[in-house]
Protein: Glucose-6-phosphate 1-dehydrogenase
Amino acid sequence: MSFDLIFFGGTGDLTWRKLMPALFQAFRHGKLPPGGRILAVARDERSDDEYRAFIKERFVEVDSAKRPSDEEFARFAALLHYRRMDLSKPEHYAGLKAWIDDRRADTVVLYLATAPYLFPVICEQLGAAGLNGPNVRVVLEKPLGHDLESAQQINRVVRSVFAESQAFRIDHYLGKPSVQNLMALRFGNALFEPLWRRESIANIQITLAEELGVGTRGDFYDQTGALRDMVQNHALQLLTMIAMEPPSTSDADAIRDEKLKVLKSLRPFSAEMVARDVVRGQYRAGTIGGKPVPGYLEEQKVPPGSTTETFVALRTEVQNWRWAGVPFYLRTGKRLAERRAQIVVNFRPVPHPIFPGSARANKLVINLQPEDGLELHLLATKGSGQGEMLAPVKLDLDFDKAFPTERVGAYERLLLDAIAGRLNLFVRSDEQEQAWRWVEPILDAWAHDPNGPRPYAAGTWGPPASSAMVARDGCTWDEEE
Structure:
């Protein structure tokens, strides 16, 4: 299958830091369909060879195990092309169409790796130029809008040019192998599904923690914040996959229909509930890995006195028969104690303990990063002859050891799916808008809150109020047990 893959924003950080290395890995693994061309478009004046040299220089920053040899890069670089474009000029889109029509590939993928405010302009120009035929797909990178109104406006323009089946709204967390195993865990095995309900589960925790700060992206991050950057998309997508009902088939819309039902079942926030069940924080100077790091307000390009949150923890519930009364705790932040992405399913304790120490409940830990695997925490006797005292034990499945061949990365998987037209791991417009609809009351409450985010020291797990929030339910975060 021949394809043309065009990156708008072809010299931007996302393209050279994430997308090009992912494409190279697909090429190295022999998964990239033959007969492909990869075109980067941007405002700069460059030749194809100059762009290839630009990408080669930046591949030095890629993990050494994934870095290409000169010979490998030369073969990959033969696929790369560059075209100067002013995204506001119709004649430049006409030139792009002529380049594409020159050989009429089976599939054309237009990847918008630009700022979201450019999405409507680009899509309107693509439609006017006739670059929206049935073999064309458009990939929209997050964040898709700044709030519900801007997201709806982007979606209206996209739908006026492309059919919904042509629009691939990307959330790279959905491409992680461990996230794919959520579906396999729930719907490919009979073990857990009978327990996957309020009668057996006490609470579910989703943590997306980073050690890094905002780095040189302070100006971008300050306009976004942790709620928009991580909760509205990544965290809610994980929640839907944990809480959804079994879909009737593995078809993309069957899966996305069930995810949408979860989003519509999330308990809506009032201003009073935001004050009680949502904690926002902002990191101050602290220590990471034994080294001092600055606070958020001392980072490059962050405005003085900014009240942008770098941490969010919240409590919610899914109001349906399966999950009624089960708290879902979501937490994300920068400059936290360690890099960790995981889902913890805490089961209820046995109804009548007969062994000393058996009040401790079982839990299932789904590790997403940096480890990739499952941990099942059980209780067992020590076998020491000292009576029937129970002790915690852990069954640990490391997917990297279980599947020793190199696994496909998130962006590699999603790029290959976009080329192949597989929509399962992409977000539908009604899902995305419902997620914005749910977080908007939080944004509105914060806009009228003079107190701003709570401070926390870099290298900790966020403001103490986060622990107090879950403690009201008699719970603790996983690392506090």
In short: Residues 225-243 form the longest helix (19 residues). The chain has 15 helices and 17 strands.
